[in-house]
């Protein structure tokens, strides 16, 4: 069999124009490491430097194809069209179902492989976001709800994050015993990273206690390295104890490689090497930064363009780094590529045979729905107003997120084939005659825009004159001209052209029109773009942005009666991002809920669908509404316009059910008074709207539990840039939050009985095994999530309690199950200040078990370790 594989490899390489002579690196029968070592010996120094860049150009003389290290698969294959979009990770964490997480990422890796090979067989180029290396999962600890990227994580708890993260990696990479990896996964961002977004390129964390480092910030990374054999680790932007994480010998050598035994790739966050000399000022220039990154152990540099690692030959010439050091890194790079089978014929790589028909197939759609259902977390249900009766006379569906597809997709997402909005989901339960819909208000703004688009025109025609070029700089032949008479809302998502014959990439456009003011007034330009956008009025540039995502913004502009204004937009598609352009303008009018209340006359029950969206929280975003800064938040309360809308509804006598979409915890103290029920629905993916409707109308009994603490308000939080865990998360919080970690209601009632514990004394290294009875005392089928926490006695600096085990328990009415639980020996390890390491010390440990982290919901017993 091995000979057949070798002959097939020789034939493939011969057809590719390489000499028929078989070099060891061309032999699939050898190990990836052996092949990589041989290939390194045949490379020039310049070629080695090229291979250490995230965009690695082809080396035809050796049959090395172009390769991109940067693709994303946070909750489905990202930045691609017609894929399955699963719920955002923080929502997945609320399911406490790591077995389902594995299935989802196994499906995601199937779709990524199918997308990649379909593109390659169609002659497309291996480009960013269409590759076999995916920079997923994000296993940072969500320590502060203000962090806009916390939605990408699996919550605030190290154990839950580790359990989920391990299954993500296993699903993405495929069985460890397989010859080839399905994909190469990546644990990010290593280490001690969770905002703020606005200071991450300069932030220096120089007071992290060893306890916080080892008990909170590192466990998930260790688990992914040792339990899942993750093939990539991404180093973070900020400094830790004066050293940038991508230049830290302590993080990358002492801990990652020497202590944990990591043998694979370290990749930089994009631009992190550049930060060495532009932001952190620890290197004098690009050459020194490249040398520092290599010597510390960063094997691949991600950079938007002009990679610093391309300067490594100069660094070698100047004696800043040895070529032997570079060889070690390049061997790791090539080993990863050989593990994928990316240099071998598709015929011998089983993953290359996955058909395109798996993409968004029915099985994957069902997985997306199942996870969305399991993520639904019921926080309040006064007088059992939920579930709603499908024979309800009338129900109002109100709010800015009710009919919003992109909100459900979260961030780092692909574009699904179809999306079921929350309004769509509710329409599947009741008739149109029973339903009254009104957006009612914006997410944040307390004004609505009265569009003036119908008042513009040029050359005697209405709207904007649009001119397109299939070049990125408005040069060459004009490929299309047309007049656009509706507010601009253009996208290449779903392979849509901006206009006929306009390419999907590398194009530019200009839009021009005129407006004559009827009166003196202040108008607002409303715009958003992915790509280059510049707005001119009468030839003067008013705004220029270069965005990698579309972020709606508003720009005020005063006009004078009788004066004509020439409005012009220049747009160009950038990098490998999908192109998007939105533009409208008009007069902003204050929100008034009088008409809304009148519209809802005779309606007793209202479902208000609001919260946040990834237009407000996310990665390093130019969003600066009140309470928001750079993708993060400065205030965790719900935006005032939404609070006011729900208060107006309540004051009008309505029963208010609040469906809160967010990737983070919201301070919902006012809403607990205004609203009769609160359903936390996260960002639910392509089927999120169906899952919400299933819960609202009782076709699914909610079982989600909070993977993060819901604080009462911002006063319960320490300074955002303070990374001490003191007072943070359920593990160290001393005050009473609004909703505790692990909390979530059901439509049925569960009882958790007394544990049966065979032994109360353990030897070090022994697991703790015990059983707990769980019963359903209600009249509906339901799922309880049994949670086990541990506290070390006589450890005043340690956590109040910390999660160490959980199990989903499905029960029919009146059914009881005896649940077997096992606490592994390492669960008793805490940081020992004297030994300066994690140890399981002799002494007493309290074991808590129940259905939330609230001690009122927990029972306990004591174990002696000796």
TrEMBL record:
This is Beta-glucosidase. GO terms for molecular function: alpha-L-arabinofuranosidase activity; xylan 1,4-beta-xylosidase activity. It comes from the Bacteria. Pfam families: Fn3-like, Glyco_hydro_3, Glyco_hydro_3_C, PA14. GO terms for biological process: arabinan catabolic process; xylan catabolic process. Residues 1-20 form the signal peptide. Residues 459-601 form the PA14 domain. SMART domains: Fn3_like (SM01217), PA14 (SM00758). InterPro entries: BXL, Fn3-like, GH, Glyco_hydro_3_C, Glyco_hydro_3_C_sf, Glyco_hydro_3_N, Glyco_hydro_3_N_sf, Ig-like_fold. PANTHER family: BETA-D-XYLOSIDASE 5-RELATED, SUGAR HYDROLASE-RELATED. Keywords: Hydrolase, Signal.
């Amino acid at each position: 069999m091995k000979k057949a594989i070798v002959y097939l490899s020789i034939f493939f390489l011969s057809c590719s124009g390489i000499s028929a002579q078989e070099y060891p690196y061309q032999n699939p029968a050898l190990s990836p490491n052996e092949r990589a070592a041989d290939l390194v010996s045949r490379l020039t120094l310049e070629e080695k430097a090229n291979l250490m860049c995230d965009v690695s150009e082809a080396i035809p003389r050796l049959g090395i194809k172009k390769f991109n290290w940067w693709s994303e698969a946070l909750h489905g294959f990202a930045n691609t069209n017609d894929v399955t979009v699963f719920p955002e990770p923080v929502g997945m964490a609320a399911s406490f179902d790591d077995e389902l997480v594995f299935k989802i990422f196994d499906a995601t890796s199937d779709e990524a492989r199918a997308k990649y090979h379909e593109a390659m067989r169609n002659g497309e180029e291996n480009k960013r976001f269409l590759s076999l290396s995916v920079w997923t999962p994000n296993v940072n600890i969500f320590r502060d709800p203000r962090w806009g990227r916390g939605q990408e994580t699996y919550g605030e708890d190290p154990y839950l994050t580790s359990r989920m993260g391990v299954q993500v990696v296993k699903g993405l990479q495929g069985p460890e015993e397989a010859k080839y990896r399905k994909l190469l996964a990546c644990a990010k961002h290593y280490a001690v990273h969770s905002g703020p977004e606005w200071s991450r390129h300069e932030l220096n964390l120089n007071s992290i206690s060893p306890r916080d480092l080892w008990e909170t910030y590192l466990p998930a990374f260790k688990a992914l390295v040792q339990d899942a054999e993750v093939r990539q680790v991404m180093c973070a932007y900020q400094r830790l104890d004066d050293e940038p994480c991508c230049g830290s010998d302590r993080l990358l050598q002492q801990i990652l490689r020497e202590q944990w035994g990591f043998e694979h790739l370290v990749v930089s966050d994009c631009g992190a090497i550049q930060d060495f000399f532009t932001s952190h000022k620890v290197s004098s220039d690009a050459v020194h930064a490249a040398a520092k990154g290599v010597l510390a152990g960063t094997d691949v540099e991600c950079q938007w363009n002009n990679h610093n690692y391309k300067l490594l030959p100069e660094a070698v010439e100047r004696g800043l780094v040895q070529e032997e050091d570079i060889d070690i890194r390049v061997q790791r790079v090539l080993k990863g590529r050989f593990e994928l089978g990316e240099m071998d014929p598709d015929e011998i790589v089983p993953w290359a045979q996955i058909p395109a028909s798996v993409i968004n197939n029915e099985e994957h759609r069902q997985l997306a729905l199942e996870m969305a259902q399991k993520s639904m977390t019921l926080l309040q249900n006064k007088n059992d107003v939920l579930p709603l009766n499908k024979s309800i006379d009338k129900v109002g569906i109100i709010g800015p997120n009710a009919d919003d597809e992109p909100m459900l997709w979260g961030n780092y997402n692909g574009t699904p084939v179809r999306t079921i909005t929350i309004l769509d989901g509710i329409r599947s339960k009741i008739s149109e005659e029973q339903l009254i819909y009104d957006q009612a208000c914006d997410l944040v703004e307390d004004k609505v825009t009265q569009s003036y688009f119908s008042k513009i025109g040029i050359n005697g025609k209405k709207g904007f004159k649009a001119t397109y070029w299939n070049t990125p700089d408005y040069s060459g032949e004009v490929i299309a001209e047309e007049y656009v008479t509706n507010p601009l809302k253009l996208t290449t998502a779903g392979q849509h052209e901006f206009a006929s014959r306009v390419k999907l990439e590398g194009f530019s456009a200009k839009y021009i029109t005129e407006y004559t003011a009827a009166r003196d007034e202040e108008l607002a330009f409303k715009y958003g773009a992915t790509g280059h956008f510049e707005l001119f009025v009468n030839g003067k540039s008013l705004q220029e942005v270069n965005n990698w995502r579309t972020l709606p913004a508003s720009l005020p502009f005063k006009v004078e009666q009788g004066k004509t204004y020439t409005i012009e937009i220049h747009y160009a598609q950038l990098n490998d991002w999908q192109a998007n352009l939105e533009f409208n303008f008009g007069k902003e009018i204050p929100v008034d809920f009088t008409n809304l209340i009148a519209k809802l006359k005779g309606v007793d029950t209202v479902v208000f669908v609001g919260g946040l969206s990834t237009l407000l929280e996310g990665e390093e975003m130019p969003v600066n509404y009140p309470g928001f800064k750079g993708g993060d938040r400065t205030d965790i309360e719900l935006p005032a316009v939404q609070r006011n809308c729900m208060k107006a509804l309540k004051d009008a006598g309505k029963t208010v059910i609040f469906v809160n979409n967010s990737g983070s915890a919201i301070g919902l103290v006012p809403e607990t008074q205004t609203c009769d029920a609160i359903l936390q629905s996260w960002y639910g993916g392509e089927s999120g709207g169906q899952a919400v409707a299933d819960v609202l109308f009782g076709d699914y009994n909610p079982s989600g539990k909070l993977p993060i603490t819901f604080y009462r308000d911002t006063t319960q939080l320490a300074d955002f840039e303070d990374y001490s865990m003191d007072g943070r998360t359920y593990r160290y919080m001393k005050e009473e939050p609004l909703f505790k970690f692990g909390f979530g209601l059901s439509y049925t009632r569960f009882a958790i009985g007394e544990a049966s514990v065979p032994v109360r004394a353990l030897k070090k290294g022994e697991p703790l095994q015990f059983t707990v009875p769980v019963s359903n005392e209600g009249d509906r089928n339901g799922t309880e999530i049994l949670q086990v926490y541990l506290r070390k006695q006589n450890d005043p600096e340690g956590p109040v309690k910390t999660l160490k085990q959980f199990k989903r328990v499905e029960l029919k009415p009146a059914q009881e199950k005896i649940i077997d639980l096992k606490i592994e020996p390492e669960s008793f390890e805490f940081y020992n200040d004297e030994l300066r390491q994690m140890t399981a010390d002799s002494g007493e440990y309290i074991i808590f078990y129940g259905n939330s982290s609230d001690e009122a919901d927990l029972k306990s017993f004591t174990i002696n370790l000796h």
